[in-house]
Amino acid sequence: MNPQENQKSGGLSPLQLVGGAGLMLLTALLIYWPALHGGLVLDDALWVNNSPELKSFSGLLSLWRGTKLPDFFPLTSTSFWLEWHLWDKNLLGFHLTNVMLHVASGWLFWLVLRRLAVTGAFVVALLFVVHPVNVESVAWITERKNTLCLFFYLLSVLWWLGSESESESGKKTKSRVYFALSLIAFLLALLSKTSVVTLPVILLGCVWWRKGKIEKRDWVRSLPYFGLSVALGLVTMWFQSHQAIGHDVVLTANFWARLAGAGWAVWFYLWKAVWPLGLAFVYPRWTVDPNSPMSYLPTVALAVIALVFWIYRGKSWMRPVLFALGYFLVTLAPILGFVDIYYFRYSMVADHWQYFSIIGVIALIVAGVNVKISNLRVKMILAAALAVVFTGMARQQAKLYGDPRVLWEDTLVKNPDSWMAHEIMGHYLGNTPEAVEHFKKSLQLNPNNVASHVNLGMILQNAGRLEEAQKEYEAAEKIDPSQWAIKFNLGALYDTQGKNAEAEAAYRGAIQINPAYSPSHNYLGTTLLKLGTKTEAIAEFQEALRLDPGNVEARENLNKALAGVGK
Questions:
Q1: Count H helices, E strands: the chain?
Q2: What percentage of the chain carries pLDDT values higher than 90?
Q3: Which helix (H) or strand (E) holds 366?
Q4: Pick from 124, 212, 158, 152: which is nearest to 9 by CA?
């Protein structure tokens, strides 16, 4: 690397730019073809099937000003809103959009790295596009947060560098335009996903890389970026604590355990970036013992290495190492465990969390190979071989997303103690003895898993084992009394048992929490008929039809009830 050379991203002909983009696109399509018709994974259903906000213009407004959703990523949500109106529930469109954004980000990485005079910029960008770790961010629809955010993130960096170059050339007006565009792009990135709050630090790092120092003017120019980071970061923390996490406890570790765990996470991500074998959708959730000195070894080793690097920072060969690994660590900082994230309930690490960071490791390795090997043909062969190997590995990983059930089966092979994977496999297996075993295993691993209690209760209820089902529902209600679906299921169970008063109370409880669910009103109406309160029953049937005019059962019940009172 030589930051003083090739400052312009020009130097590339239109044919080279189009050819590079074409190669990235063809390679990405080869990798992700098996996943393009894949199903829904985890919270995909919320954004593709079950989100009322996606179905109307008023819903679009609520994405920007509402507080009901677990996260505040309104630009990502808006992209889903737009796609839902373009191709409804056809998942091919959602998947293709993610792939195209991923390729566009790879292309922008190429331009940014050329601006920074990073050796082998195209090879680095291509390896980013084909890296197996990135499959999770591209094949999982909801991780549009990553693919959309990275696109604007890179635009912001590219325009910041353009502003710097124009300023150095004395073109103040152009410099201001690029600066404004960069700031707007950063805002759009934050509105897509706030994990990029560290961008101001990265921009200052780019200044240091290009000029060897950071001046007062650079700090002043970065202030608006820091302001946006703080503002949107606080908003996201509120949503995580009040909406996503709520009353759940995702992490009980104290500061020292979190500090130790952060070291573990950094080495984990570094290892997966270099050697992407054994990738899993949900990794085993480790527990750090803050009282054990051994727990701090990864963090201490990291600190010692960083100190050595800093001592030798004046050496020309050390600057690329500091720049690349500094970028890697800074971009990882938000997900190292110092701030609670809902996903920590399942695991402390995830492939999609290093989507922004991995380019630093790739760039450093490519630069190292370039220094050690002078023969151009050998370097080209090595680059091509690694790209082919990564492409094959990534395609195998993408195949898992072609069928969500296969993805969860693979997860259980690699992480048999994932309570979430057992819960979801039980859901896929339906009313079978195998499903019961998965739900029981999930509860054995996590007794407070409400969904497994409810799903197990439903299977037992369908099998006529009503007392066992009731125990599961009551256990779920004790854990989380705010779940309307639990009360609804209890109402149906009491109805089957002929306990009409108990059924009425359960249905009313479900309606109090979620008054917009049509079946709750319908079944409350049938229970009220049994109790002889016909007028109230008719009112409930009418409300059920108001909420869902297509509820045939409620319409038939209403007709019978009206006939019963001579109407």
A1: 26, 0
A2: 54
A3: helix 358-372
A4: 158
For the chain, first and last CA: distance in Å? 86
Question: What value does the mean pLDDT take over residues 111-133?
Answer: 94
Residue 418 is which amino acid? S
- What are the strands, taking DSSP E only, across 427-538? none
> Is 460:468 a contact under the CB 8 Å cutoff?
yes
Is residue 343 classed as helix, strand or coil in its secondary structure?
helix
Q: How far is CA 304 from CA 300, 318, 392, in A?
A: 6, 15, 36
Rounded Cα gap, residues 407 and 124, in angstroms: 29
Residue % of the chain over a pLDDT of 70: 95
Give the model's confidence band at 303: pLDDT under 50 very low, under 70 low, under 90 confident, else very high. very high
Least confident of 320-329, 335-344, 432-441: 335-344
The structure tokens listed for 267 are 């080495």
- Of 107, 115, 220, the closest CA to residue 165 belongs to 115
CB 136 within 8 A of CB 34: no
Give φ, ψ of 3 to 5 degrees: -70, -10
What is the residue whose two structure tokens read 């996201």? 236
**Residue 115 and residue 206 in contact, taking contact as beta carbons nearer than 8 Å:** no
* Pair of tokens at residue 75: 């630009």
Q: How far is CA 96 from the centre of its chain?
A: 17
- Give the tens place of pLDDT for each residue, 472-491: 999 998 988 888 889 999 99
Report the 3 state secondary structure along 139-198: HCHHHHHHHHHHHHHHHHHHHHHHHHHHHHCCCHHHHHHHHHHHHHHHHHHHHHCHHHHH
Which stretch of 17-31, 81-95, 268-282 has the lowest confidence by average pLDDT? 81-95
pTM: 0.88
Q: Please state, in angstroms and rounded to a whole number, the distance separating the CA atoms of residues 450 and 475.
A: 8
Residue 32 identity (one-letter amino acid)? Y
E-state strands within 409-533? none
* pLDDT at res. 73: 87
Predicted confidence band of residue 374 (pLDDT cuts 50, 70, 90): confident
Angstrom distance (rounded) from CA 468 to CA 443: 15
Determine the residue type at 338.
F
CA angle 347, 352, 354 (to 5 degrees): 100
The two three-digit tokens of residue 468, written as one number: 């066992």
Across residues 530-558, what is the average pLDDT?
Answer: 88
Do residues 124 and 78 touch, judged by C-beta distance below 8 A? no
Gap between the Cα atoms of 295 and 306, Å rounded? 19
Give the model confidence (pLDDT) of 177-194 as tens digits: 999 999 999 999 999 999
Tell me how far apart the alpha carbons of residues 563 and 57 are, in angstroms, rounded to a whole number.
40
DSSP state of 214: -
| Residue 52: C-alpha distances to residues 80, 137, 192, 246, 280 (Å) | 12, 25, 20, 21, 32
Take residue 278 and report the two structure tokens written for it: 């054994």
Please report the pLDDT score of residue 2 as a whole number: 45
Of 74, 75, 83, the closest CA to residue 55 belongs to 83
Query: Around Cβ 93, how many Cβ atoms within 10 Å?
Result: 14
Q: How far is Cα 461 from Cα 230, in angstroms, rounded to an integer?
A: 50
Question: Which has the higher per-residue pLDDT, 204 or 427?
Answer: 204
